[in-house]
Design a protein that fits this description.
four-stranded antiparallel β-sheet; about 0% helix; mainly beta; about 100 residues
Length: about 100
Amino acid sequence: ALTLIRVPPHSDFEQGTGHFHDEVEEIYLVTRGTATWRFGDEVVEVAAGSAVRVAPGTVRSHRNLGSEPVEIWALSRQLDHGDATKVDEFWADSPEAR
């Protein structure tokens, strides 16, 4: 599966929640802007031109704290069943989120 994710400036993609996959490994390619990601307990900035591999079972979410749009391509194996689990209250809402 290949998905384009566009995150407007000062936006939380999952509004404080996160998600993980039981089986699916994902690779995220940031092609525009800088995204702030949380992977488990780790928070990192990922700039355009970077790729991130996320193993199954890793809770993740991202947001755009900047004033420029962020574009991310998510690549993963497509399954014939759902395998994503939402995690509520994964991290505090961004104070500037719209």
